[in-house]
């Protein structure tokens, strides 16, 4: 399947007071959203053009971090247990995590349209009341009710989020390759406009194309790694304020009209947090109206180094979320391959 002549943002209909509703773009009952743009042809082209040296870069923070998550999410717990009661050198391990405490994709069940209590869905919204809360028990893999797991992260997991990745290194752009201080604190509320993202991409010699996975290095990881443990742990107890992309019409037009398949950054929230008074959360539009994966807490430090060394800011991007039926979110299991 190919997608040509996609509508511009201004050509999309509105849902209530929200402009830019893409529910009709991908067809009735769609559960992939903008991941639809990652067609076999797009993946093949990205692999053939971008994989040259074979060097790969991990984009995932270890699942142990942050040890003190923000937004009051559960602390990650990793337990190593003996395989049996016998004294033999065999172990298992157990993980108990919130899938959004660290590096993550926000899935289609994570964020809906707040004032209307509905989530994304092709040609019609899904009421929040349609989703089961609590333990998801699915004993029979041959008898899974589609309604029980609709809009789950498994849809992206079974499709894959693979294609051309593009790093826009805003830290490098703002600091003039480290010769000037960053003009904002990544741990404070600061809005990055679309014009700066475009200018940074241009300075790198990057031109966007349909289906790109956009990765934004804003500075959280650099700030975190240079801070004391007391400062790091203190993030959990203070009101959440973080730099991120600017809310508003200009950003929505930029993201939609470039037809990105997904967008991610190294910040705890992709968008400026909290939103300024009078502006809606971008999450409502990106996830609720477009079905676009939002990535947060991506570790882009090593990727930035490789990009700077090679002069290459595009690469083959590979991400395989956890195949959890009906899941809300997932660690991305993401890599850049040059």
Outline the structure in words.
The chain has 338 residues and is of the alpha/beta class. The protein contains ten helices and 15 strands. The chain has helices spanning 40-50, 146-149, 154-159, 170-175, 194-203, 220-225, 229-234, 249-257, 282-289, 301-310, and strands at residues 56-58, 77-82, 91-96, 104-106, 118-119, 126-127, 163-169, 190-192, 213-217, 243-245, 262-265, 294-296, 314-319, 329-330, 334-337. The strands form four sheets. The chain has a nine-stranded mixed beta sheet with strand order 1-15-13-7-9-11-12-4-14, with helices on both faces. A two-stranded antiparallel ribbon has the order 2-3. The mean pLDDT is 95.
Brief digest:
By secondary structure, the protein is an alpha/beta fold.
Number of helices: 10
- Overall geometry comes to globular
First-last Cα distance: 26 Å
- Largest sheet geometry: 9 strands, mixed
Helical amount:
10-25%
Percent strand equals 15-25%
Show unreliable segments: none
The run of helices and strands is: HEEEEEEHHEHEHEHHEHEHEHEEE
Task: Quickly give the structural class.
Answer: alpha/beta
Q: Quick one: how many beta strands? A: 15
* Largest sheet: spatial strand order: 1-15-13-7-9-11-12-4-14
Calculate the mean pLDDT score and round it: 95
List the main descriptive attributes of the protein structure presented here.
nine-stranded mixed β-sheet; two-stranded antiparallel ribbon; 10 helices; 338 residues; alpha/beta
